[in-house]
Write a structure and sequence with these properties.
Strand content: 5-15%
Number of strands: 7
CATH class: Alpha Beta
Largest sheet: 7 strands, parallel
Helix content: 40-55%
Low-confidence stretches: none
Radius of gyration: 18 Å
Strand order of the largest sheet: 3-2-1-4-5-6-7
Number of helices: 8
Distance between the termini: 19 Å
Shape: globular
Number of domains: 1
Length: 270
């Protein structure tokens, strides 16, 4: 595991959602260790994480436009204009008895958190960033947003939308000083993957700090996609090259998971 070094984000104000633990907290620690002032938020104030970083905790329900606006306004009142925003909060739910078996409520919750949480934040931040000519928006999506996640059509669909929104930021505003990065990990050791059986998965279960380090490297190199599991790029290329072969491979993987009795849906940890 690489170690952080100081100063890369000196004097930057960074706001992060879903930051009480897991990937969000690790990203906060990475920014703080590299000179930034971080503002951590979650559904409940991430008091312990914020105290460890010497900063103030905030409450933010990213499914609420008003809550996201209030979080951004509070951070900018307390600390100054936000330079980097990390839209990290995410949720997922299984399919139920078939691919469309999830409830309307679970689909809507996934849409609001995984997609609209970023839209609400960008809506609040973009006018000021465009006026200043700079700003960085980071979306924690998932490899499911590039590929798919067996067992959860709602998670896969909304994570694809999250990747697309991050791409739209890069396309629409990349020439106006706005930078966009999209984090697409596979399996990460967090509360969301606790207890899952990974014995039938070839991909390594990595640590949240590995994701944070991968983000730091991508930002240093000005790369849009952040792939903490490099093999995800191989799968992404294979999917684009031969979609039918890739879909067939996914069906084989699903069959193996079912035969082994393993759970077919594991959410990427946030």
């Amino acid at each position: 595991m690489r170690t952080y070094d100081g100063g890369m984000f000196e004097n930057k104000i960074v706001a992060i959602t879903g930051a009480s633990g897991g990937i969000g907290r690790a990203i906060g620690e990475m920014f703080a260790a590299n000179g930034a002032t971080v503002a951590l938020s979650d559904l409940s104030p991430p008091t312990e994480a914020a105290a460890a970083m010497g900063t103030k905790p905030y409450t933010c329900d990213v499914s609420s436009d008003l809550s996201v606006q209030a979080f951004i306004e509070a951070v900018e009142t307390d600390l100054g204009p936000i330079d980097i925003y990390v839209s990290n909060a995410g949720i997922g739910a299984g399919n139920g008895p078939h691919v469309a078996g999830g409830s309307n409520e679970s689909w809507e919750a996934s849409w609001q958190v995984n997609v609209m949480g970023s839209v609400y934040a960008a809506r609040a931040l973009m006018p000021g960033w465009l006026e200043r000519g700079e700003g960085t928006f980071i979306v924690t999506a998932s490899a499911a947003g590039l590929l798919n996640q067996v067992g959860s059509a709602s998670y896969s669909a909304t994570k694809h939308a999250a990747v697309s929104f991050a791409e739209s930021i890069a396309i629409e505003h990349g020439d106006e000083g706005i930078t966009s990065h999209c984090i697409c990990p596979q399996y990460v050791r967090t509360n969301m993957t606790a207890g899952a059986d990974f014995s039938n998965n070839r991909e390594a279960l990595i640590e949240p700090e590995d994701v944070a380090n991968a983000l730091k490297d991508a930002m240093a190199e000005n790369r849009f996609l952040v792939l903490p599991h490099p093999i995800a790029q191989k799968y992404y290329v294979a999917r684009a090259h031969d979609p039918d072969a890739w879909l067939g491979g996914m069906r084989k993987m699903l069959a193996k998971l079912k035969a082994s009795g393993s759970g077919v849906f594991v959410e990427s940890g946030k």
